[in-house]
């Protein structure tokens, strides 16, 4: 399986130069993903040819949401039937939709990549509810996690997080309410050509954020205080995450795709340390770029990176049982 770290040039190539390709219509041993037991839902989800996904959004309803790196389109698939439709066609060629997440109000939060835009949509209709301009020149809004108080987004290149805070009843803020949070403490920012901050999730105790740093120390994880941006390196027992993008946490377990497999880690409650318990492989994996949890399944979209997409390139997401 290909193992290639994504650089600024690579991200640019996916999001802009290839825009015309989109045509919509170690410890713990290795475990192999087994098929579902009594579940009749499909285990492979088919996306439109040429779509090029980079993330996955899952909420309470049985739907998966995918964004296109090539034109910012949003595709929704029924987990029960595998049937899908374009929920929103996106802004057009050269725009990105990277990380996605659904909140309890049925809103879809979309990281806009190089467009420096955070978009909030109605997850049922695809209607745009709000857009926010974030960051600085060179910002690429990468992945997102929705917490009880805010939606938090990573900036792949500038050592920043962006927060969309919620009102008492979940109200969205005005543009001037957006939080720009510089990362400090132990945080190590890569060179201008290196993607640094990628995936983001909450600690098991939900008091802090976990942010993947794909360049520091060969690829690792940092615990970030959302109040001040102070980051501390998480002790992963030597595990490296150089190709990890979207991550997910459920309970004490953290799931981290590594382009060629899925690392499963057991974290302490505060998110200060974690240990590898399984490395899950599956013959259907083709550079999985993110992971989401629904019920007793994990869903992983295949990016096929570094394969350059064409209008005929087929893209899928695969479902595996939650590792025990």
Number of helices: 1
CATH architecture: 7 Propeller
Strand order of the largest sheet: 1-23-22-21-20
SS strand fraction = 35-45%
Low-pLDDT ranges: 12-30, 34-38
CATH homologous superfamily assignment? YVTN repeat-like/Quinoprotein amine dehydrogenase
Helix content: under 10%
Radius of gyration: 18 Å
When the domains are counted, the total is 1
Top-tier CATH class? Mainly Beta
The end-to-end distance, rounded to whole angstroms, is: 25 Å
What is the general shape?
globular
Quaternary state reads single chain
Output the CATH topology: Methylamine Dehydrogenase, Chain H
Mean residue pLDDT: 90
Classification by helices and strands: mainly beta
Order of helices and strands: HEEEEEEEEEEEEEEEEEEEEEEEEEE
Characterize the biggest β-sheet.
5 strands, mixed
Q: Find the count of extended strands (DSSP E, 2+ residues).
A: 26
What's the short story on this structure?
The protein has 324 residues and is mainly beta.
Notes on the protein architecture:
There is one protein chain. The strands form six sheets. This protein has a five-stranded mixed beta sheet, with no helix packed on it. The chain has 324 residues and is mainly beta. The protein has one helix spanning 8-17; strands spanning 30-32, 44-47, 57-58, 63-67, 74-78, 84-88, 100-102, 107-111, 117-122, 128-133, 141-146, 150-155, 160-165, 179-182, 184-185, 197-202, 209-213, 220-224, 230-233, 248-250, 253-257, 262-267, 274-281, 292-294, 297-301, 315-321. Residues 12-30 and 34-38 have low confidence and may be disordered.
